[in-house]
Amino acid sequence: MARSLKKGPYIDDRLLKKISDKKSGDKTVIKTWSRACTITPEMIGFTFGVHNGKEFISVYITEDMVGHKLGEFSLTRKFTRHGGRMQKEQELEAKQKEIDAAKAAKGESE
Known about the structure:
Structural class: alpha+beta
CATH architecture of the largest domain: 2-Layer Sandwich
Order of helices and strands: HEEEH
Number of helices: 2
Number of strands: 3
Radius of gyration: 21 Å
Strand order of the largest sheet: 1-2-3
Oligomer: single chain
Number of domains: 2
């Protein structure tokens, strides 16, 4: 649910203070636990280490991310894959098609 317009976006003051000390494009990672903080235009060009509950995920801020939350770019769950026999068969078929395509491309170039 969105925050009311009357209150404005939530921006962590400590995070803004850390940003003001550095220049845009600085490669140092700014660590933060504030996943609910809204990304503002002042944050563009910085790299944030956003905590996902276990480790810090590096997130480089671009113009497209303005208005989103920091936590959206640091996933808390890791999807491995759906298992089973069908999945393995599909993966083998995809791999075989890839190999065949590579051989065909190599044959055409010669």
